[in-house]
Each structure stands twice: as structure tokens, then as C-alpha cells.
Amino acid sequence: MSSLQVSVYRYNPETDSAPYMQEFQIDTQGRDLMVLNILTMIKDQDSSMAFRRSCREGVCGSDGMNMNGTNGLACITPLSGVVKDNKLVLRPLPGLPVMRDLVVDMGLFYKQYERMQPYLQNDTAEPAIERLQSPEERDKLDGLYECILCACCSTSCPSFWWNPDKFVGPAGLLQAYRFLADSRDNATQARLAELEDPFSLFRCRGIMNCVAVCPKGLNPTRAIGKIREMLLSNAT
Amino acid sequence: MVTNITNLGRSGLSDWLIQRVSAVVLALYALFVVAYLLFHPNLDYATWSGLFAQTWMRIFSLLAFISMAAHAWVGLWTVSTDYLKHTGVRFGFQAVVILAIFVFLVWGVQVLWGA
């Protein structure tokens, strides 16, 4: 009998006065399942269990959660990668308001993303067909455009925990640099001006929690460093 | 747009630069003092006092004190805005810190040039 001991954060604001941890015994039959499979099996036992998931292959970014203390996507995290002493503790992404069980309110996260104006801005006359980019210019966007906005990085960042209303967070800053680095975008000065205050970008202390947890292997800390270089060369 | 009026340089970029430059100054000063103590194992008052009687050492020390003051303000201002969520408590903390830094700085100048 290969029974896995799973402890899950439960909270239903309509019936519970406080959150609590609920224990489940899950029979994995010795298979190295993904954490999302375990959650599905828990839902078979207790249909009131709430969590988000969609594509179940690490593309949609819905099932970001905290597994044994580390943020990640449940659908692409194998048990062998997180389980210790046959125990698995599942909690919602830290720092965001919990709506129910593992479902968090991503409002603050999206608000910071929106503030970065994550779309191409160019006030020059539109060419007849499209704005062209050389292969070298396109290469600069690699490692930036792949973000799926799962919020694993920003919710593992203490600076975002303390000031989610002012600090943009690693996900938003990665997207800010994605457009700063784009040869077709010419709103560079306005974008940099939005990041020059002591909170929006400079609250990053470079502890690289974001890099450690990103399920897509991206590096927001490097992007933040690049923006800082742009700000510095712009102002000295 | 995020506003701020109590941080040192009124800008995250200038605070960040001040923090980095002052850290280099403090590192050089600390290394110098440690090295000086290592090379003078039987240090007496006359030698120590003679070191600080030289103009370059006074300038170097004052530079280190000013760097310390700026570094402490940028750092503690950041800590206060991270952890102190009540405006009154945060402003009170900032006022105490800036007062302490001012006192230590003036006192440091007096020590350097007073003897």
C-alpha cells in the first residue's frame, strides 16, 4: 500500500471562521503522479475542494500553488520533485487574498501587470504591411515573452508581499522589460518614467525567489537588472 | 504613478545609486581600519591619535560617516515602508531615525576636528 499523506489548506468564507488544514490519505499505487492528479483524487473524496486548473500541461498557468513550501504549477510538478517523508502540504499562493481553499484573488497581481501597459506602443506612421524586426532584434525577446502569468514568482517575493499595491513584482517587471527590449516599441521614456520611483522596480532586493520558482525557467531578476541599467544610462 | 517624499533622493534610482556607492566607500574604510589595526598590533594612543590628526584621514573618515548616514537612511527608510503599515508609527520611526543620524553625524565631525 503506497499511501501518500496529503495536507490541504481549506477555507470557505461562507462557512468557516478561519482557515484550517485537512488531511487526506491518497493511494498513488506507487506511481509518480503529478500534484494535480492528487488534487483530482482528493476532489473525488471531497467534492467541496476548490482549486483552479485548465490545460493540465503547464501552459495556461491556472494551477499555481504552494507545494511543500515552494510555489509551482501542480500539473507539471511530479510527486518525486516535492514529496518529503511521504508528506505533501498544499497551500494557496502566498500573499494574495484567499477566496476559497486553493483559489486566490489575483486582482492585485493583474493590476500591476496592467500598469506596465503590456502591449506594443508606437506613435510613428504604420507601415503598409507590418513593423519588421531583424532576427537579432527578435532574439532579445526570448526569455521574456514566454511568461504565462501564473503568479508563482510574484507571490514568492517578500517585496511583493509587503507592498503589492506599489511594487510591480517580478512578473510585471519581466513584461515591462519585454516591451522595453522590443525594437518596435517606442514608448521607452514613458515606460522608464513609470518605474523610477523607490517602489515600482527598486523594491526588488535581488533575492531571486522568482528565478527559483518560475515553472517556465525565466529570469525576472535579470530583466529587472536590465531595466535598472536602462534607467541608469538614461539619467547619468 | 507611485509617489514618495520621505526617501533620500526622491527617486528610487538615486537611492539605489547612493546605496551602492556608499557601500563601496564603507567597505574601503572598513578594510583600511582592519588592515591598520592588523599592522599595528601594539597600537598606542599617540599612534592612533596621530593617524586621525592627518587631513587625508579626516577627509576619509568624514566621507565614511556621510556614506554611513546616507546608507542608513536609505536602508531604514526601506525597512520602515516594508514593515510599518500604520502611517503614524512609520512617520514616527522615520523621524527618530533621521534625528539619530543627524546627531551621530554632527558628533562624528566634532570627534574628528574637536581634539
TrEMBL record, chain B:
GO molecular function: electron transfer activity; heme binding; metal ion binding
Positions that bind a ubiquinone: 83
GO cellular component, one term: plasma membrane
Any single biological process term in GO: tricarboxylic acid cycle
NCBIfam families, sorted: succ_dehyd_anc
Transmembrane segments: 21-39, 59-79, 91-113
Function: Membrane-anchoring subunit of succinate dehydrogenase (SDH).
Pathway: Carbohydrate metabolism; tricarboxylic acid cycle
Membrane topology reported for the UniProt record: Multi-pass membrane protein
Record note on cofactor: The heme is bound between the two transmembrane subunits.
Key word Kinase present: no
Names of required cofactors: heme
Compartment list: Cell inner membrane
Protein name as it appears in the record: Succinate dehydrogenase hydrophobic membrane anchor subunit
Pfam families: Sdh_cyt
Domain of life (superkingdom): Bacteria
Residues binding heme, per UniProt: 71
Keywords: Cell inner membrane, Cell membrane, Electron transport, Heme, Iron, Membrane, Metal-binding, Transmembrane, Transmembrane helix, Transport, Tricarboxylic acid cycle
